[in-house]
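Purpose: get a first structural picture of the assembly so the mutagenesis plan has something to point at.
Setup: two entries, given in the order below. No constraints added.
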Amino acid sequence: MLRDFRKKILKSPISVLLPVSGLIILGLSTLFSITATQGQTPPNALSKQIIFMIPALILMSIILLTPRRIIHKYIYLIYGCILIAVTLPFFGEKIAGTYRWINFGLPFGLQPSEIAKWVIVIALARYLSDHNLKIKNIDAIVVPFLIVLFPTMIVLNQPDLGTAFVMIIPVFTMLFWAGSRPIHLFLIIAPFLSVFTAFDILVFSIWAAIMAVVIFLSRLKLWHALGLYFSNIFLGLIFPLMWGSLRSYQQNRLLSLFNPELDPLGVGYQIIQSKIALGSGGFMGKGWGQGTQTHLKFLPVQESDFIVSVIGEELGFLTLLIMLVLFSWLIIKIIRLALDTTDRFSSLVLVGISTIFLTHVFVNCAMTVGMIPVKGLPLPFISYGGSFLLSCFMMVGFVLNFGREKLD
Amino acid sequence: MIGVVVLVHSVLAFRFFQLQVLDFDIYNQRAESNRIRAMSIPAPRGLILDRHGEIIVDNYPTYILYGIGAEIINKKHNYNVISQSTGIDTTVLKKNYQNYYRNRFVPTRLAKDLTINQLSRLEEEKNELSGIIYKQFPERIYNQKIHASHVLGYLKEIDRQSIEKLGEDNQYEYGDLIGWSGIEKNYESSLRGKKGVTYYQVDAFGREAGKIFGQESILPYPGKNTTTTLDVSLQQLLETELRGRRGVGIVSRPETGGILAYVSAPNYNPDLFTGLISNSDWQSVIADTNRPLLDRVANGLYPPGSIFKMVVAIALLEKKIINPQDEIFCAGSYDFYDRSFGCWKPNGHGNTNLEQAIVQSCDVYFYQVIQKIKLDELAEAANQFGFGLETYIDLPSEMKGIMPTQEFMNRLYGRWGWSQGALLNMAIGQGEILVTPLQMARYINMLATKGKTRTLHIVQNKNHNIPEPNISNRSWNLIQKYMSKVVTAPQGTGRRSNPKIPGLKIWGKTGTAENPHGEPHAWYIAYGEKDGEMISVVILLENGGHGGEVATPLARNVFKHYFNSNRTKLAKN
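Result (structure tokens, whole complex):
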């Protein structure tokens, strides 16, 4: 048995752990800078993060060694459990105005929606690989979307817009991977774009023109094409009415994207301070522990959502570039593994996980540089956050497991 | 797909490059000197003036001291330095810091009402301090001649709940002052002005380092001055007269409804709420059993006593139930079934007609005539004079009082629980009837103008008119004639209110209201006219005794002051 394990580990794509270790070291040294320079005594973000590394590595190893067919067999059950788990926080207390955490009476809460991210991906992978679907038909897309939408809607109500967004993105890449027609995926994304472009009449007109061209080129039946086109236009037109029903903090976040200077002490404050921190870091940074923006606390949520700004301020553009290289190395490696695997289920799991990582990296970095609204998504392996760290290492475990040559 | 990954990372890398390498100079400069801080500049509140333009409520500059948590290096040391140069105790500073603390970056108030002297001594120690800033704040200061506390009202620091209640579009911050009662509350929106904002760039030690580029500060817009109808000298006179007593004095102009003096005694020093007065003084006001905080003018409820008799008389005259000449014998008491109702004069008034019944305030006359009408008819007449209804004065709170109807009595005592005997009590303004002194002021103003008076007000009359009662000129004339006799007749109960100024004519009515709290309340309402100039007076002394003896001299002093003073002539010219 032990020899079996040894073989399993050696056959795993262990090189994935190289970028991961690099990112972990970068994250811990940044947390060290924050806690040490500001004189925070343990338990602080650094000590908690180190302690969380232990269960994270254990879980990663367990997942690495679990036979794939067991994962395949029980994933629907796990999916059912996670649906219940993301509902549980609603029965507990509100923490920071949201129902994201479950309190077990431990000094920290657990966030089931972090785990739900990969559970959805694997459940979806099983569904798509199990069924010999006529994936080219648009109705074959319905069930995969239902699998994703149930947990996503619950998480959206917690409310946690960022996590909900991360949950929904993999379904597109996985369907594409499984062979859906791109036009179908386009039609699913189209309503959202219709809504987002509805802010501006010019942008909306451009979008309407693009949509017309795409639908025309896809050679749909005339009635289908017209129906799809005009229902999208209609959605864009009624959206301004629905805007009023958004929660005001969500409205504020969206609005501050377009003009952060509008409200220098509110939502825009975070983006302004984040940009100042990044920009003042320059090419080489101010030096470890020397970030004035960070240590005078001008930078908000610096341990988690805005940790990139801390790195950028203290260690400079060069380090951020290295960080991005590490991330792209990790993600491209996972996609390569997906391409190499002959087994459809494994391949889909890998694609889903790489999508999750990519979404996190893009949303987090784009937020800190003011390209998209403040979403509150952490950066994998770098940001402080127990549940998220566990989830990330579990995903690495799956990558090691599913990326392996077939053994079981 | 790998292409997408590369693209995403390249976009991010390019954006980082743009920010960190291309725009490095801009952001580096901003980080060096730029700590955005928005500080509001308080707007001076509008002044409150009397009718002649004399200032009643003014502003004077004080300074507020703040500490910024993130920038104070050694709290204890800072507190000691502040304490040594200003004399404020360190425990006070510590307590304030805890009370007003919101977060490390927002200035937290440490002390207020600092004088320029204290501040300049502190400024000398500036190098010893870190994260300590101050700003100027206009504080309320009051005319020393008068208190007028109930009508002016006071300001209070707004709390979190009240800010939330005001909705999203309000400009209040926690700790701001807001009008909490009286004129300050009612005219808050025009008095408060509009706050300004300045944006500071501050270095790590909290010292100002210039303005932010492109962020011009917005200057505050001072509040509007408010001219009231009050007359400081009359207010002063009445406050002096009522000092040491519990009672009310109101002087107003019947033609306009403008109030010249508004006194509720005992009152309190309006400085009490500005923070200049110690906590123990505040406790003594709260604990005072005479309840100085109660505005007796608008919120005190009293039986009207004999003053109500004019309502009864008018109701009867209008229904042609009585003939003013008919006489009724008063033997000092009246037996109604098994109950005996006494007259205030135990020896009786003898044969009495309506005129004598009002002038000498005979009760037995009214016990008999009241039996000819129903309670609801009486209530209807009383409502015409505003009893049981709001006066709609421009102040934030007033009581409506009680004018009972048949339905009210049934509800209170049950259908068979009360009898006609209750009506006998009401005929002389006793029993269930309760009025506020403010309603009395409207009542006397209606009697003075034959119903053509305007709504009572301190600043201006807003969208309310008193409906003109449907009363014949004959009744008005008769009642005015009787009220004149109250003052001029040798046995008239109001004769002591006449200052005997040539050309000045006075009409009045006394009241002595029995109540469960001891001695009767003394009432006097009157109006005087000279050369077309008219004012009305309402006096109430709680448990003062006979209205004709104790309340009338106060009214006399008011008339004497008003019609003798040069001020009136000045105002007329």
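The interface with chain A takes residues 1-2, 4-6, 8-9, 12-13, 15-17, 19-21, 23-24, 26-28, 30-32, 34-36, 38, 70, 104-105, 199, 204, 215 of chain B (CB under 8 Å).
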